[in-house]
């Protein structure tokens, strides 16, 4: 099954996609919090290295991905007065 572009979705499908993105955002937020905990633990134990750098890189990637996923959807919801 081929993925449709957001602009081609019906109003109902767009609202369902909005719910999915909200769930993804919550999961991403929890994961970022967990990674921040790992970084803080590493700093408290005075161990700088991969245990600190890898979570920082993953936090950066997750934060940027979440931002780009929801921008277009929110614009379409406002345009169609669905939100």
TrEMBL record:
Transmembrane segments: 21-41, 47-63
UniProt KW keywords: Membrane, Transmembrane, Transmembrane helix
Record-given protein name: FUSC family protein
């Amino acid at each position: 099954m081929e993925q449709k572009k957001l602009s081609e979705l019906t109003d109902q499908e767009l609202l369902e996609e909005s719910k999915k993105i909200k769930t993804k955002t919550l999961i991403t937020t929890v994961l970022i919090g967990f990674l921040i905990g790992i970084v803080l633990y590493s700093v408290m134990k005075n161990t700088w290295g991969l245990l600190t750098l890898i979570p920082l890189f993953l936090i950066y990637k997750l934060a940027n991905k979440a931002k780009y996923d929801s921008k277009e959807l929110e614009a379409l919801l406002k345009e169609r007065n669905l939100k």
